[in-house]
Amino acid sequence: MKYKFHRDLKSRGLAVGKNAIYDFLRYVVDAFLVFQVPIYSASERVRQVNPSKVYGIDVGLLRACAPVQRPDTGRMLENAVFLTLRRDARSVAYHRTESGYEVDFVVQRWDGTRSLVQVCADPSEAGTLERETRALVEARTELGIDDVVIVTLHQEDVVEAGGAKIPVVPAWRFALSRAQEKG
Q: Can you tell me the distance from the alpha carbon of 68 to that of 142, in angstroms, rounded to the nearest whole number?
């Protein structure tokens, strides 16, 4: 992310060093404007070498600062789900499977339980649901985590993939269920 940002600024004619970008990112993290989500690994070296994903503290603030006219609904939904997970999790990370598929969130709760959460605004698009479930099934096998879910904008269903039944739930229901578990 930092390198893409550096290239983008450079292409706009702004001379900004990579160290300045690292400093700026550290400042906004320290101010709790954004959160960095590392890759899921027991190795500290692996977490440091791989890029972190960045999520904002407020979806509305992200929307207000977005340079594009049309919001990226999927990205905004993923950010909102992250904020929901962050409230009651000991740690949140992302996972890249051995085949290169990415699972949005590996959640470790305070009670030691873990779950995999995939976010997809509209799984009805051709091939999207298959791609999302493929990543979850592979990560489920690699990490030994049975609690998996796909969070969508509106759809609700249960899909069967890789011998597992994977619930597909709308974001509002997901957020309510997390609040009920906590309360």
A: 37
Confidence grade of residue 182 (pLDDT, cut at 50, 70, 90): low
Alpha carbon distance 91, 112 (integer Å)? 10
Amino acid letter, residue 179: A
Closest CA to 78 of 89, 86, 66, 68: 86
102: left (phi over 0), alpha (psi -120 to 50) or beta: beta
Enumerate domains of the chain plus CATH numbers. Answer: 74-182 (3.40.1350)
Task: Return the C-alpha torsion angle 126, 130, 136, 142, nearest 10.
Answer: -140
Q: Which of 141, 148, 142 is nearest to 169 (CA)?
A: 148
What is the number of other CB atoms lying within 10 angstroms of the CB of residue 104?
A: 24
Q: Residue 73 above 70 pLDDT?
A: yes
Sign of the four-CA dihedral 36, 51, 74, 106: negative
For residue 131, the one-letter residue type is R
Looking at the chain, which runs of residues are DSSP E strands? 34-37, 53-56, 89-96, 102-109, 114-119, 148-152, 157-161, 164-170
The one-letter amino acid code at 9 reads: L
Q: What percent of the chain has pLDDT over 70?
A: 95
pLDDT, tens digit, 9 for 90 and up, residues 127-137: 899 999 999 99
Strand partners, 181: none
